[in-house]
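Bump. Still looking for Ankyrin repeat domain-containing protein structure tokens.
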Amino acid sequence: MEINIMQLISASRSGDLEALQTLIAQGADLNAKDEKGYTPLIIACYNNQIASAELLLNAGANVNASDFGGNTALMGVCFKGYPNIAKLLLEHGADPDLQQGNGGTALMFAAMFGRNDLLKILLEHGADKTILDSRGMSVFDLAAQQGNEEAIGILEAA
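Sorry for the wait, here they are.
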């Protein structure tokens, strides 16, 4: 039986653990991508479904998979503001220094969107604050551009 990626995406988005377990047991490709390049893990994380994310990770989903724009699940949760999922991803080996299409990192997303709790988590897990995006801007530049003084203080202290 061919498992449709949309079944996986739907179960991941809604947090339907029973459906996910069934699909995993049937041999679903946990790293399959939909038309935007989203994997089930990316969708679970973007939708704040920590139990689904944990199930997918424990079943072998690629923690560093990216969508067609180069965005990873970790970048998404730093944009959305989900610290518990960020910790889960980092504990499963998520690379905080991967860069998406414009050179942005999870740390940059956290700084730009005022997710200072996530900034601290990423720094505790070794995120590199010296990386520059495709415009040559650092995380310090992006935090300053957004008026995020607290982030600048956190970055300077790290």
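The mean pLDDT is 95.

Edit: fixed formatting.
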